[in-house]
Amino acid sequence: MRFDVFTLFPEIFSGYLTQSLLKLALDRRLVEIHLWDFRDWAEGKHQQVDDRPYGGGPGMVLMPGPITAAVEAIRPQHPEPGEVLLLSPAGERLTQPLVRELHSKKRLLLLCGRYEGFDERVRLALDARPISVGDFVCNGGEVPAMTVIDTVVRYVPGVLGDEDSLAEESHNDPGRLEYPQYTRPREFRGMPVPDILLSGDHAAVARWRAEQSELRSRPPQRKVEP
Ligand SMILES: C[S@@+](CC[C@H](N)C(=O)[O-])C[C@H]1O[C@@H](n2cnc3c(N)ncnc32)[C@H](O)[C@@H]1O
């Protein structure tokens, strides 16, 4: 699977791409991640990429020219056109079903905003799909883009050491959370591991886990005012 990430700050990704599962996935060529700097498509001596908003207001807005030029130059580099995702707090919420849908795409082009975000015509000109990682505002689209990559690559065969991990995970079924996990030591600060997990009775363990998963997945009880 191929990711093309467009950002004003490619260096932000360097730690993320050189550690742990992502590093292994890149080394084994299971995924390709290309970083592109919008500023390379900016015109003029100052390579300007942002300007003040029409209508007034605070901050700066990313200009449509350099952003669309960057994507239109890079997209034809590969026969698979992929889908353009525009990171935005106003976008469609990233959920596990959406992650699974995105994994089927073969190629994703991720646009990371900064400042007040993108001129609206970027979305229209590139037919980009706005995606939000949650109902909060980050300083830029880089961490949201890493979130998209981190969640989608888990479905690329060979990326996870044990693909059974995917089967029982939280949110696999909407709203369903995984059971609690324990490892050594058998007792920690007076808290023992539940006896059932030490019993060797696989059917009983599976029943206990199903019950625990059910309990955890219930919506939190509302506080009743006295
Ligand atoms: C400071 S934010 C801009 C927020 C924008 N003025 C608004 O109120 O919607 C700068 C950039 O961070 C990214 N970003 C911030 N929060 C995000 C979120 N929850 N999901 C996805 N991207 C986000 C977007 O790319 C956005 O263009």
Q: Can you tell me the CATH superfamily of the largest domain?
A: SPOUT methyltransferase, trefoil knot domain
SSE pattern: EHHEEEHEHEHEHHEEH
Structure ligands? S-adenosylmethionine
Number of domains as seen in the coordinates? 2
Low-confidence stretches: none
What is the averaged pLDDT score?
96
**Percent in helix:** 25-40%
Report the β-strand fraction as a percent range: 15-25%
Count the E strands.
Answer: 9
Task: Return Rg in Å.
Answer: 22 Å
Using the 3D structure, state the CATH architecture of the largest domain: 3-Layer(aba) Sandwich
What does this structure look like?
With 226 residues, the protein is an alpha/beta fold. It has 2 domains: 2-155, SPOUT methyltransferase, trefoil knot domain (Alpha/beta knot, 3-Layer(aba) Sandwich), CATH 3.40.1280.10; 170-217, Trp Operon Repressor, Chain A, CATH 1.10.1270.20. The protein is 31% helix and 18% strand. The protein is built from 8 helices and 9 strands. The protein has helices spanning 14-17, 20-27, 64-74, 96-103, 120-126, 142-152, 164-167, 202-217, and strands at residues 2-7, 32-37, 50-51, 61-62, 83-93, 107-111, 129-132, 187-188, 191-192. It has a 5-stranded parallel beta sheet with strand order 2-1-6-5-7, with helices on both faces. Strand 8 and strand 9 (191-192) form a beta hairpin. Helix 3 packs parallel to helix 5. The longest helix has 16 residues, at 202-217. The model has no long low-confidence stretch (mean pLDDT 96). It binds S-adenosylmethionine.
